[in-house]
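User: Please run a holo structure prediction.
Assistant: Happy to. Please share the sequence and the ligand.
User: Here you go; the ligand is coenzyme A.
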Amino acid sequence: MKLYRKTKRVVVRPLELSDYETWKSSHLEMLSPQNTWDLTAKTEKELTRAQYKKLLAGRAKFRKKDYFYDMGIFNLRGDLVGTVSIMEVTRGISHTAYLGYRIFNKYWGKGYGTDAAKAMIDIGFKEIKLHRIEAGIEPKNKRSIRLARTLGMRKEGLKKRAIYLRGQWVDLLMFTLTTEDVGIKFNPKTPLLKPR
Ligand SMILES: CC(C)(COP(=O)(O)OP(=O)(O)OC[C@H]1O[C@@H](n2cnc3c(N)ncnc32)[C@H](O)[C@@H]1OP(=O)(O)O)[C@@H](O)C(=O)NCCC(=O)NCCS
């Protein structure tokens, strides 16, 4: 499975041990949160090499389980500018997962989010062999909704009280792509269940 894509603006791939310094500086250089969905900066204590190794080990385990694929987004200068993921893979009769994306605020508005999400969708369909990719977005997160639309994702509706965030259940607008939408023939990694 090739978990790597290079676009005009970014490289998307899993983080490696040798990325520690850029990972640390990306977090240290982050501006204060720019909106509700933006990341709060990690403390120095959370940015040690030991913590980083733990993080990588956890991500590798999830990938091996075919459950969660979390990737770093690098610009062409080699800075870590964000993360993009395929989360909570469900096989059986659905072959579905969620798409997640986050660009560190210093790098917003440069096309990195668009490029990285496109690359991850390609990986999701062609390498992880998904049939459906969904993005769940809070209705007020206009930047993210614009990005989902740029990606050509179809709005499917409002999922009420979908996830527990900031101490409450929040609704999510669901945006979706299936292999049919992007002209890819679905070829499951694990066979679909036979009908009972
Ligand atoms: C949502 C988020 C991922 C967008 O990332 P981004 O890298 O700023 O997105 P892009 O730069 O690709 O696109 C944003 C805008 O910049 C524009 N842009 C500016 N310079 C650009 C360039 N050189 N090339 C392409 N687009 C550019 C795009 O056209 C787009 O404009 P539009 O929205 O008016 O069409 C980012 O704001 C983020 O991480 N937010 C916090 C976390 C979050 O909300 N995650 C999603 C949870 S559902």
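Residues 37-38, 101-103, 108-114, 137, 141, 143-144, 146-147, 150 surround coenzyme A (CB under 6 Å).
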